[in-house]
Amino acid sequence: MSAIRDYFRKMKGGGAPPPRVSLGEMGWSFVGAFAGMGLVAWLNYNFLQGTGLILMLGSLGASAFLIFGAIKTPVAQPRNLVGGQVLSAIIGVAAYKICGGQPGLAAALAVAAATAAMLATRTAHPPGGATALIAVIGDEKIHGLGYFYAVMPVGAGVLILLVVALIINNIPKTRRYPEFWI
Asked: Quick one: how far is CA 49 from the chain centroid?
């Protein structure tokens, strides 16, 4: 009984909440996320319409949060952004192909394998789990891309966000990005 009580006690937490973010940090995070996702959207809607290609991907929004709003965290660094996203895209496509007729199994396999692979390669980037999942649950446009999904929209999208992050995050003297490359 004591072990069960101890188990549930851990769920109460015990640490302090994170500190408040300054208005300046919030402002630069807003500017960066707006510029990064704005550029991705502009390219998507002005150059890719009618080509069969896409650039807009939900998980890029989560990546934008990390690289503009949590720039010092390991999961926001370029190695993790690019490596985690592209690796997860490849794994998601593979899971879809392996389990094609069983989307529930493919979805679980994609996210679990992407998680393990990102941890094993030191490229943990939480939005990568969503990227792997999108490869499975996406529409025919996504499925039709096959492994090219890792190049476009994923690879191109994260590289666009990375370039914008390098520019915007280094404008104020109080910010520096990245903390590390490799």
From this structure: 24
